[in-house]
Amino acid sequence: MTAENANELIEWARNDDDWLNDSEEEMLAEDTLWDEMFARNAEMFDALAKAADAEIEMGLTQPMFDADGKLITTAFARPGPPHRPHRSTGWRR
Length: 93
What we know:
The chain has helices at 3-15, 24-40, 42-57. By secondary structure, it is mainly α. The protein is flat.
């Protein structure tokens, strides 16, 4: 995700307050849907959590927040060496 895309997403989220108008019944119904989705996909979420923990332990992650607790939006580049041109496609990720 580029910094520009991240900023667009953050701005969209800041302006998305339509959920504030949901009734108590609608919120409970949505909670039920989320609970069911997480239950159906528990194994996948467990595997993702283990993979994330492993990446953190190996030092493959970058901080999301600076020392002041603000979201870092300029460092979304993938860690590691720069991408090199690939002979058939021009660029490889």
